[in-house]
Amino acid sequence: MKLRCLGSGSSGNCYILENDSEALVIEAGIPFMVGKKALDFNISKIVGVVISHSHGDHAKYAGEYEKAGIPVFRPYESEMERQVRSYGEFVIRSFPLVHDVPCYGFLICHPETGKVLYASDTEYIKYRFRNLNHILIECNYSKELIPEDAVNRSHVMTGHMELQTTLDFLRTNNNPNLRSVILLHISARNSDPDEFVAETGKVVQCPVWASEKWLEVDLLLSSGKGDLHGI
């Protein structure tokens, strides 16, 4: 299973989990045409789209997928706190995050990857997970780098994960089965991606990547299958 990053940040977010036969799109903040090109126009392999919240950099192009007959999962539109969807061999459970609008993370399970956690646009994550195999998590800014007089300082600090918050989550959820960590939604102004990767590498014993456009990562799983227990 391969993870492709088509965009990560305020200009638009979209990631694809893809193997030879199926693909799951995470976020629809990038034009559908970009996703088509990334999949060599084989859109029949897209089994579903999951969207965390209603902001345009995550949801703007959801309708383009729906017009193509592809199901879109928007847990923020329901009063149910947690919901589960199955798309192909992907099983996705949503869980609430902390943002300025209703926002959800996803625990995504697949036989090839095990447990993949996705969480972006949240001040913190109130859950602990068991035996995660891959973590895709926001690491938006450092409090040491964001200016005291920044116009959007309050918005950033109350709706996005700071470096130390991300590291605390990773310490809590680190385990021998963890295979990779991908840092998402890294601020262009208030971050240092190299530092973030280095600091994360001190916490986990697996490869760490900073998300950027066209990043590709193989999400390997040596043995076993994912399940939906442990939240």
Molecular structure report:
The protein is an alpha/beta fold and 231 residues long. Helix content is 19%, strand content 27%. It contains six helices and 13 strands. The chain has helices at 32-38, 56-59, 62-67, 153-159, 163-173, 193-201; strands spanning 2-7, 14-18, 23-26, 46-50, 72-73, 84-87, 90-96, 104-110, 114-119, 134-138, 180-184, 208-210, 216-218. A seven-stranded mixed sheet has the order 6-7-8-9-10-11-12, covered by helices on one side. A hairpin with a 6-residue loop joins strand 1 and strand 2. The chain is globular and about 45 Å long. The protein starts with a strand and ends in a 13-residue tail after the last strand. Residues 223-231 have low confidence and may be disordered.
